[in-house]
Design brief:
Number of helices: 2
Oligomer: single chain
Radius of gyration: 13 Å
Strand content: under 5%
Structural class: mainly alpha
């Protein structure tokens, strides 16, 4: 998702190299936040 958003701006390599570990570590938390946002938005 993030890579698709930044692929056109040319920062894909930066995200893959510098942020990849951080994103993997925070992926569960990010998913939880996204789910919570969807629930709040839905109702």
């Amino acid at each position: 998702m993030i890579r698709l958003c930044y692929s056109s701006s040319g920062t894909t390599k930066y995200l893959d190299s510098a942020k990849r570990i951080q994103w993997q570590k925070n992926r569960k938390q990010l998913l939880s936040v996204l789910i919570a946002v969807q629930i709040l938005a839905a109702g």
